[in-house]
Amino acid sequence: MTIPENALFAGVAALGFAVLFNMPGKLLGLCVLAAVVGHAVRGVAMSMGVGIEVGTLLGALVIGMLAEIFSRRVHTPAMVFAVPAAIPFVPGAFAFKSMMGFATIAATGGEVDPSVVSEALANALRALLILGAIATGISLPGLLLFRRGAY
Prior knowledge:
The protein has one domain (3-145). The longest helix has 32 residues, at 114-145. The N and C termini lie far apart (39 Å). By secondary structure, the protein is mainly α. α1 (3-20) crosses α4 (79-86). It has helices at residues 3-20, 28-47, 52-74, 79-86, 92-108, 114-145.
């Protein structure tokens, strides 16, 4: 999938979550814009050889910055924009693969192939790092750059 296609589908997913969270209709476009730009940044970073964890951090930082800018313009909390826009970053495939690996380990009893253990742990660690990157990226702009009274 190309970077523009991925960004477009991320925007559609963000739109769905924004509607699910009862975001006012006039704000939906800003949420979609934050998702599209953030995912495009992650896609470009990854195409330049950056890992998915760092790419996700960069994309989430962009989403956090845009959410703060939008929140100041329409007098709405930034997380209203940031959370639906960042949800498509959630590493469902890595979490699923790690859980399947752990289930395989549990089902085998005492004899476990070391490659299964290492793959399950690697997928779990990657999922945790991506989740940490999302949380850090969407919260740092509000904590560091956009303090109350600083705008």
